[in-house]
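Handover notes (outgoing to incoming on-call)

Open items:
1. Cytochrome P450: sequence verified, structure written out, both below. Nothing else pending on this one.
2. Nothing else urgent.
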Amino acid sequence: MPTPPVADWVQIADLYRDPFPIYERLRAEGGVHWVPAVGRYLITTYDAVHATEVDQQTFSADEEGSLQIRAMGHSMLRRDDPEHYLERTAWQPTLRPGVVKRVWRSVFERNAARYLDEMVAKGPGEADLIWDFAAPFAAENLREMLGFHNVHQTDLQRWSQTLIDATGNYADDPEVWAKGKRSFDEVDAALDEMLAWHAKHPDHSLISQLIRIPDYRMPIERIRANIKMTIGGGLNEPRDALGVAAWAVLLHPEQRRMAEADASLWPTVFEETIRWISPIGLYSRQTTREVELAGVTLPEGARLGICILSANRDETVWDRPEAFDVRREVKPHLAFSKGVHVCLGNWAARSAVADVALPMLFDRLRGLSLVPERPAEVGGWVFRGMLSMPIGWDAVAPAGASVAVDAARDAAAPALAPRIAIVGSGPAGCFSAQALRRALPAAPLDVIDRLPVPYGLVRHGVAADHQGTKAVSRQFDRLFLHEGVRFVGGVQVDAAGLARLRSSYDAVVLATGLSADAALAIPGAALPGVVGAGAVTRLLNGHPDEADVPSLGRAVAIVGHGNVAMDVARLVARDAADFDGTDVDDAVHHALASDVREVHLVGRSAPGAARFDPVMVRELATLAGVEHVVHDVDLDAVPEGKDARMDAVRALAARSAAAVGDVRVRIHWWFAATPVEVLGADAVEGLRVATPAGERVLDASSVVTAIGFAAGDGCLVEPGAHADGRVEPGLYVAGWLRRGPRGTIPDQRADAKGLAALVLDDLSSGAVAIGRPGIDAFEGATDFDGWRRIDAAETLAAAPGRRRAKLRTLDALRAAAADASIALPEITAVADAGAGDGVPVTILFGTESGGAELIAEDLAQHLSARADVRVVDLADADPDALDASRIHLVVCSTYGDGEVPTAARPFHEALVAGVGGLDGLRYAVFGMGDKSYVKTYSRGSELVDEALAARGATRVGEYGRHDASGPLDVGDVAREWADGVLADAVAAVS
Ligand SMILES: Cc1cc2nc3c(=O)[nH]c(=O)nc-3n(C[C@H](O)[C@H](O)[C@H](O)COP(=O)(O)O)c2cc1C
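Cytochrome P450 structure tokens:
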């Protein structure tokens, strides 16, 4: 491997002024350079930076001769585990998300109101947003969180700046050292005084917390160093994030209007801000051995500058990375770092800036603007932020209304009552209706579907044996039953229909999805016997379009390794007797799959890169009578626990003959295999595939293609052509039509918020006029009561052990919808059915930094009206004392390299050590993780799941997951998951 190239053209002054063009060139030239002006190797690409963050053994934080150690003492930021971990856990309790929410948020609100008033007193044109608001606000918050009751926020500002200056004193300026030393001594003196005070007057602050830790007394010099590090790093991050966010929003009026109209977008503004200009731009690491990184060799002991500002603008990760755009697809940025040093203050910064300061600022200062004659200045590369930001405003709204931005928005919104038609009642259509209802409470909304039944893929796409996922429809029921949204069923909208809707409604949202199976482009793909996975799931779900039921014959080859392929394999291989609690169409299942003995699952990627969710694979591994054969994979290539997908594949192969029982169906797994030709004269006789071991012919009587979805006949717009959701003012797209065939049901909820903001934006800017009449009566349409009759008829007709018997033809659906003799179920019963009434629930949480605990508490509150709920930390739980009369909801994060959180390890170990004893115990799992840990995403929760299952407990409902680096609110996802699980559990026993 070559040594890194030298970038002698890079100068510090240029980096300070504008590092981005320099970083762009460095990334283009490979991403690892020796930069003489800095005396370090600069690491600039996303992948290389990420690789350093997750490997502390090689890329040590404990840098020799570190200036930071000289300036502040040896803090946890310059230590590796286990020492780092010990100190980190001492800091953690004060900064946990639950504590931020319960304790600090009100402090942030008080401080924001105070410094906003002080800034306002300076007057428009005189005030500087950074120095009159952001800096004192951040400093006062930090002072209170630390518990420095003996100093002023200006002391914190001075200490922070001088300690940071000393940390970056590469020029060895004696004056900088002297100022730093003065602050060093001042902090120590103030700290000594406060340590004594807090011993007698404990409160929620960090200093109080440090004195209270039961089993660990941190040596005083470590407390001192870490407090200084917290002062150095904890102030400028929120200050600069707030300043840059305000600047970015003022420079982008359209995005500003969106956030002002919908306060729930401020967190997105915050995340995009710190991706766009990361406040902490660079930190150091040192290699502990010679190592290859991004195609070059770094020597042992190499000093590295990890360029976060650069990684977050990597063009291989983000489109137009230089643009500030809150509507962009969310990808995991590195502004808070990843790995063991992930910013402890991230919850506090998010809350202070995104939940409190930004909404308050824009809500109270009406007409907030930059001052053209005194332009704002931005600078820095180690830390980057606003150097100054003079502002003006037109008027000041009274304090008190300030935090209630939703109320302010709602107060403005009733004036706007556009008529809106949403075409498509699947998840994208219904979530859009939900978001529009919230943003525009007075707007009449019509949701139109070509079928007399609502909910699209929830009814006809989600697998029949995954009823928990289908439970999301219950929240959609509420829209139609209680929130005045009209369901217009049985109306097909073609191009002429769309023109009519456009002239009758002020805004039209197309959410019709992608209904066709993407075609396999190989010879023979048109032979009878080649069917799409979408068609198979529609068939098994009783879709009226699918009249002919083919038999898949004795051997079926499924092309694709995504979750849809896993669904098809499971549905086909599952024994007919094993569908209790589902609404599968038994006759169709029999005709389709009863002859199947061999299934070939053919995917192009290796196991570690396959698209399936490992939990789906593990579910396949539990099917009775199904044997798995994994071909041509070296199962020992990756050690256990390092790659969740590989572990899942290994579990398939390791299944014992006793666990399988009498083999009814054999599933063959083919990885790194590309289909070449479907063989056969008049019908499918085989599938020729290219594998690393050469070409093979798989015996197949049918082929199911599960390689994605495409636009069906009559699609009204080109899918994916309108990425921001707007075709033109007044015409919008949502769901797969907007984003292409990617994203799950919860993703649609996040999209819908953006869509509602876009519509609101067009209405308030006048781009869309209000006043069209809508359409009162659609010819031949059915309504929501019609669906309720269909629902009642289907439920009544259900065979024993089945939830419903779906009506399969349009005529039958229409007849049931119009059948006045069918009594409508009680409205409340429909709205809240299956809410889990009466089933006692224990929520077990396993957490490292408090997120899972917060969600456990949120869930307890959410469920408290319907069930007796207890919340238990896995750290305090005994697996052998779990009460089988209660459902256990396990909410668990992942830590380390795909491990269970530290405090939950004894529980996990005790589970693994025991044998049996948990039969009859029902549990569900919600895994909290971060998808940027590609190989071990949410693995901690899976380990607990596997250990519970191995002891005989039964998992119920869907496997829930939340990706911390994704766009979805964890509370929303968790509540939806819990509702689904409980609905499932109740239905299963009733
Ligand atoms: C040091 C560290 C390691 C992590 N490792 C993983 C991992 O291997 N897989 C994963 O999905 N998430 C990983 N995460 C992300 C966390 O699981 C995620 O942020 C979660 O929301 C934290 O929840 P908690 O606050 O309850 O611990 C890691 C986080 C940290 C700080």
